[in-house]
Amino acid sequence: MATALVAYLQFRSTTRDAMEFYHSVFGGELDIASFDDFQMPVGEGEGHLVMHARLRTPRGFVIMASDTPSGMDVSAVGGFSLALTGDEEDTLREWFAGLAEGGRIEMPIDVPPWGGLYGTLVDRFGVAWMVAIGEVD
To answer: Whole-model pTM?
Structure first.
């Protein structure tokens, strides 16, 4: 197995919805396991929450996530963005539009001063995304 850096997102209780949304945008294989699936102790009525989810996309990137039961602290998503980069403009624009559905486009895809194309958004789950097309080095 190769070494990899993988995004691991944490939500209070929306992981299943978020990961199914990302699956609808990127495709691939989505695996979701709840706390009940592993008989892990959590607060009453929280066994259905996601203990671990993994999306493996056809393009080879991976997104993982979990819910945070009420007995644990969770920080709001912030201070970072997930970046999608490459030369396949149609695909990247499609992902940008998909991720923006129900979210907020902060900067539509346009030509930035450094070249190529670039846009930013915050999806409906509060995750910030950057899309850079073309000259991204």
So the answer is: 0.91
Q: How far is CA 22 from CA 42, 73, 98, 129, in A?
A: 26, 24, 9, 12
Q: What is the number of other CB atoms lying within 10 angstroms of the CB of residue 8?
A: 13
Six-digit token string for 1? 């197995």
What tens digit of pLDDT does each residue of 55-114 get?
A: 999 999 999 999 988 888 877 666 789 999 999 999 999 999 999 999 999 999 999 998
SS3 letters for the chain?
Answer: CCCCCCEEEEECCCHHHHHHHHHHHHCCEEEEEECHHHCCCCCCCCCCCEEEEEEECCCCCEEEEEECCCCCCCCCCCCCCEEEEECCHHHHHHHHHHHHCCCEEEEEEECCCCCCEEEEEECCCCCEEEEEECCCC
What is the tens place of the pLDDT at every residue in 56-69? 999 999 999 999 88
